[in-house]
């Protein structure tokens, strides 16, 4: 999270960008960023909280995927809880002090990269579950121990990556108070490390693992195969569409300083940044709601809180539950491992 002082007249090269265009950008950023932050906050808070409730009270942690999916909404939930602070700061100024600046910068970075590492682990786990289904099933107990070690390691690694934001985060005064992170001596190393963990590692893992998964599923039998392929393509497509633009902008910003004087470039920065944050809203849908087991537990929760009669879906829920039982009995191992999480 980097907060630029766009009101600083020296921030832009006014010889190439008119003052009128600069003022339009200021109005756009003051409206667009708070709106996007709050949309991601509300949707991410509701979706990830719902996932956590279901996993805590309804779904037993029987596999590595279950444990990873338990940590994913936790990381995303803490991530979205930092957004109200940035929303207020983007509208007014930073009023929360230096200590909160360091904590929130570190928390933001910690949970952002934890969630990306968890997505990488989920990809590898699905790869093993599909390609080596029998071996993975026979080593379930050992895999659960490794899953706990991996989850703890991911949080520790993300904390280490977040240390520069915690150490060098500070409140600076321009036309207003701004919480930002600036240390030119190590910024290039930090950027390279964070982009490797937050973008390139998940991207390469998805490309390699899902390519093999698709090849395996194409040779599998069963009517669920095509649904599995659709889920895979959806996961990869959403990751690329939300994460690629912002990471490209960060690369350009770190290597081509002349773009800092262009108003159009800063339009691209704030828009792609907001799109990247949508990942926290979409993760519950992509990685949990597509699972038959989770949908079954979701309807149990709805039934327990007494919403089914008002929604008029009691018969549909029973039919869906029966269908899930029939279909799960007829799948082969390869198809089931992608859907019945």
TrEMBL record:
Q: Which GO terms describe its biological process?
A: calcium-mediated signaling; cell chemotaxis; immune response; inflammatory response; positive regulation of cytosolic calcium ion concentration
Task: Please report the record's description of how this protein sits within the membrane.
Answer: Multi-pass membrane protein
Q: Which Pfam families match?
A: 7tm_1
The principal location of this protein is: membrane
| Top-rank taxon, per record | Eukaryota
Q: Residues in domain G-protein coupled receptors family 1 profile? A: 47-287
Matching entries from Gene3D superfamilies are given as: Rhodopsin 7-helix transmembrane proteins
Q: Which GO terms describe its molecular function?
A: C-C chemokine binding; C-C chemokine receptor activity; C-X-C chemokine receptor activity; coreceptor activity
UniProt keyword Transcription regulation, yes or no:
no
Kinase is among the record's keywords: no
Question: What is one term from the GO cellular component aspect held by the record?
Answer: external side of plasma membrane
Keywords on record:
Cell membrane, Disulfide bond, G-protein coupled receptor, Glycoprotein, Membrane, Receptor, Transducer, Transmembrane, Transmembrane helix
Q: Cellular location of this protein?
A: Cell membrane
SUPFAM superfamilies in the record: Family A G protein-coupled receptor-like
Q: Which residues cross the membrane?
A: 31-58, 70-91, 103-124, 145-168, 188-210, 231-252, 264-290
Q: Which family does it belong to?
A: Belongs to the G-protein coupled receptor 1 family.
Q: Which PANTHER family match?
A: C-X-C CHEMOKINE RECEPTOR TYPE 6, CELL ADHESION MOLECULE
Q: What is this protein called?
A: C-X-C chemokine receptor type 6
């Amino acid at each position: 999270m980097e907060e630029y002082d766009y009101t600083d007249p020296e921030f832009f090269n006014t010889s190439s960008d008119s003052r009128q265009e600069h003022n339009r950008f200021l109005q756009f950023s003051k409206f667009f960023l708070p709106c996007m932050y709050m949309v991601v906050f509300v949707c991410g808070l509701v979706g990830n909280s719902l996932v956590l409730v279901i996993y805590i009270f309804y779904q037993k942690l029987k596999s590595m995927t279950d444990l990873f999916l338990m940590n994913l909404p936790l990381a995303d939930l803490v991530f979205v809880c930092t957004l109200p602070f940035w929303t207020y700061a983007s509208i007014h100024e930073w009023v929360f002090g230096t200590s909160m600046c360091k904590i929130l910068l570190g928390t933001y970075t910690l949970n952002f990269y934890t969630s990306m590492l968890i997505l990488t682990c989920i990809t590898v786990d699905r790869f093993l579950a599909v390609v080596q289904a029998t071996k993975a099933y026979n080593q379930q107990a050992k895999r659960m121990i490794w899953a706990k070690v991996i989850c703890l390691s991911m949080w520790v690694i993300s904390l280490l990556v977040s240390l520069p934001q915690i150490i060098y985060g500070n409140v600076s005064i321009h036309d207003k108070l701004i919480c930002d992170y600036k240390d030119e001596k190590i910024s290039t190393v930090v950027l390279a490390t964070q982009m490797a963990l937050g973008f390139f590692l998940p991207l390469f893992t998805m490309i390699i693992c899902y390519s093999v998964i698709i090849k395996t599923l194409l040779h599998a039998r069963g009517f669920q195969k095509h649904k599995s392929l659709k889920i895979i393509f959806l996961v990869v497509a959403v990751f690329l569409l939300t994460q690629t633009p912002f990471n490209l902008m960060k690369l350009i910003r770190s290597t081509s300083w002349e773009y800092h004087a262009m108003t159009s470039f800063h339009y691209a920065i704030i828009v792609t940044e907001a799109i990247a944050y949508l990942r926290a809203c979409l993760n519950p849908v992509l990685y949990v709601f597509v699972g038959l087991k989770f949908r079954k537990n979701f309807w149990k929760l709805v039934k327990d809180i007494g919403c089914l009669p008002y929604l008029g879906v009691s018969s549909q829920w029973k039919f869906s539950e029966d269908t899930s039982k029939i279909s799960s009995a007829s799948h082969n191992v390869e198809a089931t491992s992608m859907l019945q999480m």
